[in-house]
Amino acid sequence: MPASPLFHWFLPTGGDGRDPGGVTAVQGRTGAAVRRPADIGYLGQVARAAEQAGFASLLTPVGLGCVDPWILSAALTQHTRSIGFLVAFRAGFSSPTLLAQQADAFRRFANGRLRLNVVTGGDPAEQRAYGDRLPHDARYARTDEVMAVLRDLLDGKRVDFAGDHVQLENAQLVDPATEHPVPLYFGGASPAAEAVAARRADVQLLWGETPSGIAERLARLRAGARAEGRTLRYGLRLHIIARDTSEQAWEEADRIFAGFDPEAVRASQARFAAMDSTGQARMAALHGGELTGTARDFIVAPNLWAGIGLVREGAGTALVGSHDEVAARLAEYQALGIEEFVLSGYPHLEEAYRVGEEVVPRVRALVAAETAAAQPESGPEPKPGSGPLQAASESAPESESAAQAAAQEGGRA
């Protein structure tokens, strides 16, 4: 495992504010959650803040409540210099040949600053809004075919493919920019999703569960990948509420919790329960869906708070604590096998600086110290290139078997 994880930041393309809210248009948002409109001026500020803070890339989500991630990311390349873009797209909504052309053009004109987040979708109501009526497992079967074709086309191969969902003849990119490999990120917690990850993903993304829950999932995912003769990288999607002291951080969590509207929580939980996303069900199991007690009643592991999941679909947990405490928890996830983190905080502009300046360096220091402590006191000279992992501003390294990849089940990051 690399000696230091890679860090990414989230773009709030549905609007931003001090409070969490829904990600899709199916779910309403409070005014406090969208006080800052998602225009190019503000999102450009967030992108530059994340770049200056040293994040590797920006996750641009996809869904009814999000602006088109391809167009937005292309626009933001003109407002940034080096940060990458983890562009989410819905598998099966357009031809994989067209997707490959879009991705190839992006990586060519943005000097390789592209990762792809392959989204299957876990909300039948939202899927129907896009005209998709496939049931859960069939959606993942279609995603499997799309990823297979997309990978080969981006690698410069000519593709003939006859699947249940994708049929292509003599598909090939013209002079593809293969000097810029495009990692495929993917997510999903169901057996159907994990089977696709084993075969096709470079990076499998998980939502922030307890360390024991993550360890259990990683063991199963590794076994699936081994059965396919592959190895994957693993990433974790989390919100961060970090302050100079633990008391200050929990005061902020208390403020967010106090602002939750009981009717909005009930409506959100009813909609989440109607989804067929296994990942969403796992998030709901952490908090039970009831707005009761205090914010600290929703602590599910040291510093891991499930309160955000009361109102937000998808990633519903946050690490809450002092900068040192949050860094320690992230380092513990890294020790389990997490090699990449997709982080966010409210508001995303200020928190990009805070997390990048205060938390990320502490994580790197902890991981470096642990790595150094594990090294033998003497031994042969290390081989060239076997030093610490590249800084988070560099592209993700290739896995042992492929270029990296993955996305969240249900598509909301």
Keywords:
413 residues; alpha/beta; TIM Barrel; 8-stranded parallel barrel; two-stranded antiparallel sheet; 12 helices; FMN; alkanesulfonate monooxygenase activity; oxidoreductase
Short description:
The protein has 413 residues and is of the alpha/beta class. It has helices spanning 40-52, 69-76, 96-109, 124-129, 136-154, 191-200, 211-227, 246-258, 262-273, 278-287, 323-336, 348-374; strands at residues 6-10, 57-60, 84-90, 114-119, 159-162, 167-171, 184-187, 203-207, 233-243, 299-301, 304-305, 318-322, 340-344. Strands 1-2-3-4-7-8-9-13 form an 8-stranded parallel barrel, surrounded by 8 helices. A two-stranded antiparallel sheet has the order 5-6.
Distance between the first and last residues' Cα: 25 Å
Give the CATH architecture of the domain at 6-239 and 338-372. Alpha-Beta Barrel
Number of helices: 12
**Could you give me the name of the CATH homologous superfamily of the domain at 6-239 and 338-372?**
Luciferase-like domain
- Strand residues, percent: 15-25%
Per CATH, the class of the domain at 6-239 and 338-372 reads Alpha Beta
Write down the overall mean pLDDT: 88
How is this structure best described in words?
The structure is a single chain. The chain has 413 residues and is α/β, with parallel strands linked by helices. The protein has a domain at 6-239 and 338-372: Luciferase-like domain (TIM Barrel, Alpha-Beta Barrel). 39% of the residues lie in helices and 16% in strands. The chain is built from twelve helices and 13 strands. It has helices spanning 40-52, 69-76, 96-109, 124-129, 136-154, 191-200, 211-227, 246-258, 262-273, 278-287, 323-336, 348-374; strands at residues 6-10, 57-60, 84-90, 114-119, 159-162, 167-171, 184-187, 203-207, 233-243, 299-301, 304-305, 318-322, 340-344. An eight-stranded parallel β-barrel has the order 1-2-3-4-7-8-9-13, surrounded by eight helices. Helix 3 packs across helix 5, helix 6 (191-200) crosses helix 7 and helix 11 (323-336) crosses helix 12. Residues 26-339 form the Luciferase-like domain. It comes from Yinghuangia soli. This is LLM class flavin-dependent oxidoreductase.
